[in-house]
Amino acid sequence: MRFFSFFSSLGLMAVVVIGNQLHTEKITLREQASFPVGVAVSPKRIAQSEYAKVVGQEFSSLTAENVMKPQYIWTSERNYDFSKGDSLVAFAQARQQQVHGHTLVWHLMQPDWLKNTIESYDSATLENLLRDYIQTVVKHYRGKVVSWDVVNEAVASNGDGMRESVYLQKLGDDYVARCHQYARQSDPDVLLFYNDYSIASNPKKLNTILEMVDDFQARGIPLDGIGMQMHVGLDLSLDDYQKALDEISQRGLKIHLSEVDIKVNSNGKQTTLTPELAESQRELMSEIVRRYNQLPEENKFAITFWGLRDNESWLTNHTGFPQWPLLYDHDFQRKSMYQGFLDGLETAQTTVDK
């Protein structure tokens, strides 16, 4: 967007801070960024008028937080329920938003029938079931979903090789590659991503994923990009983050910051988002965006936030206390973190222009 600097400067001049509330006029993320900006949503939430209004105005890309996972679609061995995913796609189409599919294969959130029977399948039977599932889902959403996380979190948490999941045990070390091949056979145009966490904070995990990427590229396995989840805290090493961006982009892949949230209450001692914490969060958000936006255009796929409002974040249950990790507060008010995103765009653009 060559007109970016002009509109961005106008928008940023319109920012007014009153107390801890950030108010802007005629600024939306989808207008300001030259790449898609996304959010993870559910059909239940986008059915709410205020929620739908904000999501429709602010974002150019949607990810299903859960309803495109096998637990929601795969009702039995040969039966599928696409209704919830279809409703999300319809919402996005009405607002000229792209849809990123998440996720075809994951060791968690399997349907109950599969969890109860998977150990009884031999490798050939499970392989056939998984192939049919991948191809049925990808074909159903062909032309409606621009990209898929084909396999989610297949690398061990500590980065030491592949995760010891039931898929690895039954299908072998190369199952991720075969899943990508099955998806490509069903849609030659959809973008295929491998998605995982701690890529920006665990160098060992990054290296394991890069070894997989290099192997895929040497063998011609279809892979268009890497999803870096970016569930991070204020202690994120920007050097490690930059290294991940550099290593992945140098391999010609697109990068999706796919599940962004920023924790600010790691020890659980905070009872409110203090101005100091909000400012630290704003600064980190700005730097994450600035470095991402300096990537070559062909390597930028999208930045997607894992939820809209702080009170709806999965991190509250996961960590046991509030983290205030997202762009909006309970009352749909933009936080300082939102301004940090805009700051990152402006800083990156100024750097490039110089």
Notes on the protein architecture:
The protein has 354 residues and is α/β, with parallel strands linked by helices. It has a single domain, classed as TIM Barrel (Alpha-Beta Barrel), CATH 3.20.20.80. The chain has 15 helices and 13 strands. It has an eight-stranded parallel β-barrel, surrounded by five helices. Strand 5 and strand 6 (79-80) form a beta hairpin. Helix 1 packs antiparallel against helix 15 (336-353), helix 12 (238-250) packs parallel to helix 13 and helix 13 (275-293) runs parallel beside helix 15. The radius of gyration is 20 Å and the shape is globular. It starts with a helix and ends with a helix.
Short description:
The chain has 354 residues and is an alpha/beta fold.
Please give a handful of descriptors for the protein shown.
13 strands, 15 helices, 18% strand, alpha/beta, eight-stranded parallel barrel, 354 residues
Structurally, the number of domains stands at 1
The amount of helix comes to 40-55%
Low-confidence stretches are: 1-24
Biggest beta sheet summary: 8 strands, parallel, barrel
What is the CATH superfamily?
Answer: Glycosidases
Chain-averaged pLDDT: 92
Widest sheet, order of strands: 3-4-7-8-9-10-12-13
Strand content: 15-25%
Name the helix and strand elements from N-terminus to C-terminus, one letter apiece. Answer: HEEHEHHEHEEHEHHEHHEHEEHEHEHH
- Distance linking N and C termini: 16 Å
